[in-house]
Amino acid sequence: MLLVRLSPAKLVSVRRVVQWHRIARRLSTSTSSFGGLSVALNLLTASKEQVADAVTRSLRTPGGPAAAAVVLASGGLASWLQDEAFMSRLLAPLVGGSTSLSVLSAAVHGIPRRRRGPGPPFSSSEGLAVLHGSLDGLLPGLWNVSTAGIYQATGDASDQPSLEFHTAPLDDDARPLQVTVPLANTIFSNGRQHTMFASRWHMASGGAAQPQLADVVERMTQSILVPRAADAGAASAISTVAVPLVPVTEARRIAAGLGNILRQVEIGVTPMPASKELESVIPKLLDARSKQLGDQAAGPVGVWALIYPENFVADANFPRPLELSGAGQPHEWSRAQEVSDLMPRLLAAGCHVRKILSGGGGWGLKQGLLSLDPQTRHATPDQEDIESFIRSFHGDKSGGGIVTPGSFVQFLVEPAGSPPAGEVAQTESNDTGPLEIVVGTQDQVVESLAGSDHIEVGVNLFGAISSDGIYVVSRPAADQGSGPAITTKIDASNSYVVSSP
Q1: What average pLDDT does the segment 108-133 reach?
Q2: CA separation for the pair 249, 281 (Å, rounded)
Q3: What Cα–Cα distance (Å) separates residue 299 from each residue in 124, 207, 277, 290, 365?
């Protein structure tokens, strides 16, 4: 069992400021020494020995021993990260000679798994994911005790442990992305609220066959720099964003609203209560789904608002709303794919996606109000509300103008049921392909390994899945242009940010 060695007098939590120009320089690190894999598994039947053997067989380090690694585990496997014997065996392929290996271990909600066929290219699964590379090029500041990432047991409920993935820009955009992933609650797995720590391993003298643990320290946050190709002759690395949602209304001009409260939209030229159109469309959608899918269509419908800034709509072709005659599979997933393909361009232009938390009904001034999710970063709701109030009090609209009269809003829902059936990609299919870093949200229905399969290795695949949503931010960096900042929370099922060097 790993023993956490803390120096409380030295481990002081301070607010962390991300230096975007430094991140951009480090993101240009060559990918030749980087690699990774994921291991999806059946939690009931897979053993630690099977997983360690699979990693040993499949993990490749063409540049020699690695200096750093990230090991992510789904929440149900959090205790595996604290098993010193298992971790030593898992990390053995990465350590060699007199070099030491710095490792970040963390428990997330799930890991990505490749799938074939129509629908999303990835699904979520229980399992482990491993990424290796250079220390500064992968885990900057891992051992810097002055950063806010070092854990201090304050008991403060506002502490929100997370991983920050710094990835390549979107297509036709020069600004790198920061994607924040909340950690899983592991209280029922290992008795800890969250699990994330840095450890240092080395080969002991005397010819030990496996690395030995030298040091451990807990962390609250940590940046992971996604490698990008440094070869000037190679195509620039880009990230893409997939958010499969189905539009059910036309885009409407916002007539009235404040903060995160949407009050009125224009239908034609007439201001109407914001929820009026949804109150008509959603019952019809549920009825159409029920006729095609039966009991599979049961359950509440999540609704999202896609907000278009006023300066975007002059030449915009908004996504077409779903014809209710086409409700259900596979047409809804086809329409969701069309919206998903547009999402990188929409986000780069300053659009953002907000889940509707409550609203509808009412009377008088409260008639038809819709409350949109105000969160744009990983923080407690109380923190977000207080900071939004302070910004509004001082007249700062840069961080709080979610609902702005003159902008447009379009309402979307998740497609019905599970994605169209697809086959799981074979390990061999990407042995020589590029490394894919996938950060996303959990499926509506989590797929499990079928039959007698205990584990499934995805070569050149690494990432993390969140059931709480991910937070995507892009800010201008030095000499990298300007434009509307990307600041959005993505919590629709089957959504992904994918970066490939």
Answers
A1: 89
A2: 8
A3: 22, 60, 20, 11, 30
d(CA 158, CA 381): 9
d(CA 286, CA 140): 49
What is the C-alpha separation between 285 and 301, in angstroms, rounded? 10
Distance (Å, whole) CA 450 – CA 462: 22
Condensed to tens digits (0 to 9), the pLDDT of residues 201-229 reads 998 776 667 899 999 999 999 999 987 64
The per-residue DSSP string of 76-100 comes to: GGHHHHT-HHHHHHHHGGG--TT-E
Beta-sheet pairing, 246-247 with 408-413: antiparallel
What is the model's pLDDT at position 365? 62
The pLDDT tens digits of the residues spanning 311-357 come to 887 656 788 899 888 787 778 988 999 999 999 999 998 899 999 99
pTM listed for this prediction: 0.85
Which among 228, 482, 264 has a CA at the least distance from the CA of 370?
A: 264
Instruction: Evaluate if residue 394 carries a pLDDT over 50.
Output: no
Q: What residue segments make up the domains of the chain, in order of their start?
A: 20-239+440-479+491-500, 246-413
DSSP secondary structure string for all residues of 398-423: TTT-SS-BTBEEEEEEPPSSSPPP-P
Token pair for residue 466? 């969140």
Which residues 6+ apart lie within 8 Å of 209 measured at CB? 92
Q: What is the DSSP string of 430-482?
A: GSSS--EEEEEE--SS-----TT--EEEEETEEEEEESS-EEEEE---TTS--
**Bond preceding residue 381 cis, omega within 30 of 0:** no
Q: Considering only the C-alpha atoms of the chain, give the largest distance between any 2 of them, rounded to a whole number of Å.
A: 82
